[in-house]
Amino acid sequence: MIMVRLLVVLCVSMLFPNMACATNYREIFFQANDLFKEGKYEEAYDLYEKIPNKSSHVHYNLGVCAYKLGKKGYALVHWRRAEKDWGFFNRAELINNIDLVLKKETPYDGNDTKTPGEFTKERLNNFSNKIVSAVRATPLLRLQLLFLFLWIFAFVYLRYWYRQRQKFLIVIVFFAIIISGMLLVVRYNFDLRQHGVVVTNSVVLYSGPGDNYQKLTTLTETNQVLIKGESDGFYKVKQKGIIGWLDKKTVLLY
Q1: Which residues of 93-123 are buried (b: 16+ CB within 10 A; e: fewer)?
Q2: Rg, the chain, Cα only
């Protein structure tokens, strides 16, 4: 009887190998959550890292753990990864965390050295960042379908329903087409280009793939870069208009 049970277990494990793995990873997830709630962030971080195909919520918790451990670069990477699949709702906390790491939350008060104009400009910049973040979370197919629908609607309207008294509607439609086109460009840019974050306190940006090249500038933790290539253990990156090379060990991609 025991041999029969062993054979059954062996057959099930051979036929459904992923089932046992999924169960183990689920247990790891719950263990990590318990440690997270207890404030044991380092242990929780190590367990979360063992989970393959991490969800946005796992990346969010990883970001919180990293931030609590003083690793702001790692926190930003995980929150950026979470941002991709987070969806439209309940994004405020995630965006606020990203802004906090990037040091963009600087409320204006009477003792602030910034002028009201500079403060307004900063607020507008933060608002635009939130819009871009929402676009990043929007599935590309939805934006493509929206863009196509608006063009079809404009064509049908001009062909069959256009009247002199209703010019304002076609203006609104074409304005919506322009906006949706801009959103598509942002989304394509995010999908087709690889981005990274500096995760060390400081790193030198060189003019070539090696530390024997000219030093261009120094980047600090949480600086975000656009990846343009790689060679000999270095990434070719662009940061604020400057193109140079960074050691791969100092950058994490998202």
Answers
A1: ebbebbbebeeeeeeeeeeeeeeeeeeeebe
A2: 24
Residues in a beta bridge with 243: 238
**Terminal Cα distance for the chain, rounded:** 52
Q: What is the pLDDT of residues 63-110, one digit of tens each?
A: 999 999 999 999 999 999 998 878 766 777 888 898 889 874 433 334
Q: CA 212 to CA 202: how far, in whole Å?
A: 18
pLDDT tens digits, residue range 157-200? Answer: 777 766 655 677 778 888 888 988 888 887 777 777 889 999 99
> ∠ CA(80), CA(81), CA(87), 5° rounding?
90
Element (DSSP H or E) covering residue 14: helix 2-15
Identity of the amino acid at 68: K
Those residues whose C-beta lies under 8 Å from the C-beta of residue 197, and which sit 6 or more positions away, are: 73, 76, 77, 80, 222, 223, 224, 225, 251, 252, 254
Residue 147 phi/psi, 5-degree rounding, is -60, -45
| Helical spans, DSSP H, in 87-164 | 92-101, 116-137, 140-156
Q: Six-digit token pair at 32? A: 């990590």
Written as six digits, the tokens of 5 are 């049970």
Q: Please give the structure tokens belonging to residue 101.
A: 């790491």
Structure tokens at 232: 């000999």
